[in-house]
Amino acid sequence: MSRRNTEQENWITYLLSLSRMVYLFPAEVKDIGGGKWGYINEKGAFVLPPKYEMARDFQENGLAIIQLNNLTGIINTDGYFIVKPKYETIIPFSEGRATAIDHEGFKVLDESGKEITSKAYSFIGDFQEGRAAAANTNEQGNYLYGYLNRRGNEVIPLSFESASDFEHGKALVKIKEGSYSLIDLTGKVLHSYSFPFVDDYGEGMLAFRKSNDGKWGYMDESGKVLIEPQFIGTQPFVEHRAIVNVENNHYGLIDRQGKYIIKPQYSSLLNLGENRYALGKAQDPERPYLFQKYAIADADGHIYTGFIYNGVSEYKDGVASAYNDEMTFFIDKRGQRLNHLPMMQGGGTLAFNKSLIKGDIDLRILYFDKKGTLVWKQNTIIPLKEDYSVTENKFKPNKDYLVYYPQLTGVSSPESVNQTLKELSGVKAVPQHTQLESSYAGDFDVSFYKNNLVVLEINGYDYPFGAAHGMPVKKYAHIDLKTGRFYQLKELFKQEADYVKVISDIIGEQIKNDEQYSYVFPDTYKGIKADQPFFISEGALNIYFEPYEIAPYAAGFPTFTIPFHDLSSIIDHDGVFWRSFH
């Protein structure tokens, strides 16, 4: 058989394999116990049932990262575990390698799921050009960086104070304070630079500062200064252009000679790829952090639209998605709406995803076929038993205020119960066309359901614009479906019982003896309040505290679980609260 015929047969085999290829897409179902993720086909039918706590897209290698029992693993398209859930997290594959993190540190996995690093590291980055930056701490607690190859071996020793990803066989590393070098894939030093700061290597250009508090300029790889320091911030050169910002935090776009293509007069400037940029204009110049509108421009500075978009995604194959106060839709490279493609009420993104179009709109995932027909969206009704159910309702009076709140069907005194749930969820009078000082997003889960008791977990996140971070909100409603009663903590116990002291002492012992609570601030825990926030789970009472109350913000809501058998002597076993779920 000729080589030509063999190549033709191979090509036909490849095309046939593509025609038989089944694409799978992650989708979430709300259920008792919270949301569960599975994978649907292009018709919207579940192929892998919703049982995961998290499910990411399948990558080109046919593998996907999932979470089960609060641990992370990897599955193939048949749902078989390539890596059983045992890691805290797994970072997606890059060049056939994924980074997994457990209690020991960072490790590299190959596509068979095997750990190929001989030890754990304090940090491992993505693989680029066959190298991944890795770091461990020295005796002084400082990070030292080097590089691993795709076999997981250290090919460039961990000796640098910082290290960038490789680009065209070169990477920028920091040798020590005031000393940087450009190295090749073997670690050989190509050029060295004596400046307090060198950064943003890209397309043969490096940003630098001549003094600790000086401005930034650009030099070439040899160290020749091409653009004198004049910027307060820089980004790497991409497609012969770089985004810079100047005094008053205004952003512009320069060429390799430092000439402005887009003058620095915008509150933000985003590279959307494919020679397109989003220009941001603050609606309140005195408070630019509040809200921006975006216009579309090209790499030559031509502006195609007014400042009409609240957000724009990156371009792919000549198409991006954008949204305004009302809708999310596709736009072409001139920023014009593509009316023949799907558009959705709400804010978010739309993107072509293999054989479907994926929408991430107002914190919900949807899928459309290429004709724009809706294939799948998340359920809004969670059945309980008999005539009882929980229905999801949406409240979005303002672009910066979004709440999904629960309403109960079949419950006694439905109007009173559901009005209370609205108020707990944050449904309130919010001005429609007024710029708010903060954004708020709220949602809920059915965290527990047994007999006549349903427990609704109400979550929220309030972010004041310009703040370092927002504040999370967590509330629990314990509702008796037969009576419509909202139970309080004290109703679980006998009237004469000093439940505050008993629970306070148990939690005090947990903090003292259990290492998992070592994050609690010393001497801050003084016991619980009579109306301490709580929730019921299977076989246990859970007591929690607000962020900052007894622990740092990063600890979230410190939660202490107490089995009911440890409280048996003070529980009112004949009380209506206990009997509602027993």
From TrEMBL:
Residues 490-564 form the DUF3298 domain. This is WG repeat-containing protein. It holds the Pfam family WG_beta_rep. PANTHER family: DUF3298 DOMAIN-CONTAINING PROTEIN, GLR2918 PROTEIN. It comes from the Bacteria.
